[in-house]
Amino acid sequence: MKVFVTGGTGFIGSHLIDSLLAQNEYEIYALVRDPHNLKWLEGKNIHSLQGDLLSIPELPTDLDYIFHLAGSTKAHKSADYYTVNQSGTASLFQALSAQELHPKRVIYLSSLAAAGPSRPGNPVRESDPPQPVSPYGRSKLQGEVEALKYAQDYPLIIARVGPVFGPRERDFLSYFKFLKMGILPSFGSSSHRLSICYVKDLIRGLQMCLNAGLKTGEIFNFADPTPYTWDELGKTAAPLLGKNPKQIRLSLPIVYAIAFISEFVDLFKKQPGIISKEKISEMRQSSWVADTHKAEEMLGFRTNYSLAEGLEETLSWYSQHNWL
């Protein structure tokens, strides 16, 4: 079976490709900007197709499945999110139509940010009206809108996920570096809860979406069914690093000041950093908790990894690769 993957050189995409290759059932075609810089795909048995979301190359006429994972999670300007997450998604489906391709399933990886924050005690369900609060979230929602325009032409599944951690991931790495220094940073309210997902659990969920019996246009939340606070995450990770960190609570004004400085510094860098006023606005919400019952009932999805197990694998990988 032939599979086309966008975002294959990234954190989640490379894990998906590793999983597909391990099953010996799939022939992988990956969209890459630079075939000479395959990153995590270097040396693997794949076909690299040069291009990007706004310039889709000719694809195999007999593609079976498409995983659209490419997206922008950090940007210098709000407009950049829409260029990739909305226009890029529209461009992909326009290319499928122009090339007269007929895949059996298209999986679009969206975000819980597209759905918006939850209320305490009321996890966000897939059927709830979306209420994104950031340019990133709004751009991912518009990406969903673009994909759903083609739901009658291509069997489509939308997968929403919150923060994903695991080997090769760099945003959580910054947090773990503080822990290794003996600091447990606490942001805003200690009751702020969020749904996170270990990358290997997400990859299983994405592959479950290939189920031929699913109705086109379905949306699924993927996450650990137990939401966590940042304090709980840090206190679970710290012993794995051999640390008993000192907790330092950062008020929102301080965090905003850090974000302002970070954004100024980012103006002189090619890649934007993870701290921005936009991200702080998301952190101000009382909770980002997803209801995962639909994925459990319709797909049989349950996470295989506890928080501690996922963190242990992740931190071990960081140490082995001298990232931490």
Q: What's the β-strand tally?
A: 13
Approximate helicity band: 25-40%
Largest sheet: 7 strands, parallel
Q: And the CATH topology of the domain at 2-169 and 194-227 and 288-305?
A: Rossmann fold
CATH class of the domain at 2-169 and 194-227 and 288-305: Alpha Beta
Radius of gyration: 19 Å
Beta fraction:
15-25%
Strand order of the largest sheet: 3-2-1-4-5-6-11
Question: How many alpha or pi helices?
Answer: 11
List the helices and strands and how they pair.
Blueprint: E1 2-6, H1 11-22, E2 27-32, E3 47-50, E4 65-68, H2 78-98, E5 105-109, H3 112-115, H4 135-148, E6 156-161, E7 164-165, H5 171-180, E8 183-187, E9 193-194, E10 197-198, H6 199-208, E11 218-222, H7 230-240, E12 246-250, H8 252-266, H9 277-283, E13 287-288, H10 293-299, H11 307-320
Parallel strand pairs: 1-2, 1-4, 2-3, 4-5, 5-6, 6-11, 7-10, 8-12, 9-13
